[in-house]
Amino acid sequence: MTYRRWFVVGAAFAVIGALVAAFAVFYGNFSPRGYVEDKYTRAASRDIGGAAVAYTSTRPPSQVAKEVTDAWQPADQYVDGSGVYLRYDDDSVVILPIAAGSVILLERMSSAYPRYHSTVGSHWGWGRGSTVRGGGPGSGK
Asked: Which of 31, 57, 85, 86 is the most exposed place for a label (fewest CB within 10 A)?
């Protein structure tokens, strides 16, 4: 009787594992980066060095930003006339207008924050969901 119970438990875990794997295959990556990679057209000629990987869309930046934020809520976002700047824990998604729609730039926060600081300033706060700590007395080190 004990072996039968373990067989049923093992079979249940196998079925759950197969369902999770099938979901991953059919619904893509589970991150903002994966969402952009799956949904938009790769545009290597628009990359910025080795840090910012470019994708394009025929839709305007506001519509692309809505699609991305509906799928993945950013920790912070900033919008101005130059584009839409989304900050996630590890990545940024920057959506800029081009003549035929938008260019979407994926970049790690370690290089994106210095690159876009003059635009986003303090709007990309480091509070919600961030692991970055300040320096100095009483800063929670």
From this structure: 31
Q: What are phi and psi of 63, to 5 degrees?
A: -70, -40
Sign of the CA dihedral 88, 120, 62, 41? negative
Nearest to 39 by CA among 47, 31, 48: 31
Specify whether the CB–CB gap between 52 and 106 falls below 8 A: yes
Strands 53-57 and 91-98: unpaired
Q: In the Cβ-directed half-sphere of 114, how many Cα atoms lie within 13 Å?
A: 5
One-character DSSP codes across 10-74: HHHHHHHHHHHHHHHHHH--SSHHHHHHHHSEE-GGG-BTTTBEEEEESS-HHHHHHHHHHHS--
CB 73, CB 89: distance < 8 Å: no
List pLDDT tens digits, range 34-67.
Answer: 999 999 999 999 999 889 999 999 999 999 999 9
At residue 28's C-alpha, the angle toward residues 24 and 32, to 5°, is 120
d(Cα 29, Cα 24) in Å, to the nearest integer? Answer: 7
